[in-house]
Amino acid sequence: MMTLKRHLLLISNSTLHGGGYLEHCQEQIQKFLGEQVKRVLFVPYALHDRDDYARTARKKFESLGYGLDSIHEAADPVEAVQKSEAIFIGGGNTFRLLKTLYDNGLIPVIRKRIFEDGIPYIGSSAGTNVATISINTTNDMPIVYPPSLQALGLVPFNINPHYLDSDANSKHMGVI
Amino acid sequence: MMTLKRHLLLISNSTLHGGGYLEHCQEQIQKFLGEQVKRVLFVPYALHDRDDYARTARKKFESLGYGLDSIHEAADPVEAVQKSEAIFIGGGNTFRLLKTLYDNGLIPVIRKRIFEDGIPYIGSSAGTNVATISINTTNDMPIVYPPSLQALGLVPFNINPHYLDSDANSKHMGVI
Question: Which InterPro entries does the record cross-reference, listed alphabetically (chains A, B) (predicted)?
């Protein structure tokens, strides 16, 4: 059996109730990236306002001692992935994220960087969803139609990062 | 402007908290179908156990004075639609329902029956979702991948039959 070089940090959500952006997991991020990584490639595709999202992420990563480049500012997204030291895919709408990864031809190149080159991958929320086999278990609304529900397949199972038990006291509907 | 013969009853859900199957809307169903309709064609595709679902629906419609044929028991689903006096599409998973409608080639034939022949259409939950332009606004989990999110387009807008305001007191996550 082949041993794959996977270096993954899969976070359920970017913010805990009452805390700041990535505050609850900042120590894990620093420990995970270590001192070798200097710059992180950020993928803001899951949200509509990419500029604003990149600003938020840049501010946080710079406070932790890392430079941040947002892929939406790169002339060639594929080349940006090929040159990256580490990738961070943020949360938002999982359908919008996966569709944009396909539209920009990024699925195979990200897989190559993770499996063959062993660069670190951080995902949060939708960025964790797309790291799995498929997005068939997302809670998100299908606001756009990706060419497939198959995702990056960095782990051999699916994840629902926002699972909630059903509310036994709800009177919203009956069954079905 | 062309006037289309649309005869639609779109129900949000099949059961109200504490009530029986279709109990909360049975008077509306009888008023809507009237005395001309004798048999209803039931589409159980949104649930996995079609036999069980058809039994539940048949029991209810027979109690209201209508015969019920389930499309999953027909040798030719397209022919079943062509011969139907009225159509009832029940709730369950909207992705599973829409995919099966496409797989069986039923989208154009149902549209023809509604728009050109003016037969009555009843939808509940997922059956209401697929009556709209598309399922882009469903709350359901994408457990299967339909060939499109475009739906029957019986009305010129989308519906979210199970909309809930967000819970301002939730501490489940932060933002994003």
Answer: Class_I_gatase-like (IPR029062), Peptidase_S51 (IPR005320)
Residue percentage of chain A with pLDDT more than 90: 84
Are A126 and A91 a contacting pair, CB within 8 Å?
yes
Give the chain B residue nearest A91 (alpha carbons). B176
User: A137 vs B141: CB contact, 8 Å cut-off?
Assistant: yes
pLDDT along chain B (176 residues), means of 10: 79 86 95 96 98 97 97 98 98 97 98 96 97 97 98 96 74 55
The single-letter code of the amino acid at A2 is: M
What is the SS3 assignment for B109? helix
Of B125, B164, B170, Cβ closest to residue A172: B164
CB contact under 8 A, B16 and A174: yes
pLDDT-based confidence at A4, cuts 50/70/90?
Answer: low
CB contact under 8 A, A138 and B143: no
Q: Is residue A86 part of a domain?
A: yes
Global ipTM: 0.86
Q: What is the pLDDT of residues A79-95, one digit of tens each?
A: 999 999 999 999 999 99
Pick among B50, B145, B159, B166 to test the A interface (most A CBs inside 10 A): B145
Tokens of B85: 């006096």
- The answer to whether residues A100 and A144 touch, using CB atoms and an 8 Å cutoff, is no
Which run of H or of E encompasses B134?
Answer: none
**CB-CB contact of B85 with B118 (8 Å):** no
Residue B110 maps to which CATH number? 3.40.50.880
Domain count, chain A: 1
Residues of A with CB under 8 A from a CB of B: 12-19, 21, 47, 90-92, 125, 135-139, 141-145, 148-149, 162, 164, 170-176
Domain that holds residue B30: 8-129
Question: Where in the sequence numbering do the catalytic residues of B fall?
Answer: 125, 140, 162
